[in-house]
Amino acid sequence: KIEKELGCKTYFCDPYCAWQKGTNENSNGLLREFYPKGMDLSEVNINDLNYNLSLMNNRPRKCIQYKTPKEELFGFLP
């Protein structure tokens, strides 16, 4: 149903198979630049979080032809 509604392909990875979802794992690595593993995320300031997410969403990505996620998203919106 998601494929039909959004007009895009979906893919479900097998559990514990990180190699099947490289883009997601790369994004997790980018998050870890700001928030190390084991960090208590409840202590993160919302303004810092929004700033860091803005940095990530404005960073060019190879998987989308070096466009930013923000550019890619707004390219789909009317």
UniProtKB/TrEMBL annotation:
NCBIfam families: transpos_IS30. One of its GO terms (molecular function) is nucleic acid binding. InterPro entries: Integrase_cat-core, RNaseH-like_sf, RNaseH_sf, Transposase-Integrase, Transposase_IS30-like. GO terms for biological process: DNA integration; transposition. One of its GO terms (cellular component) is cytosol. Signal peptide: none annotated. This is IS30 family transposase. It comes from the Bacteria. Residues 1-77 form the Integrase catalytic domain.
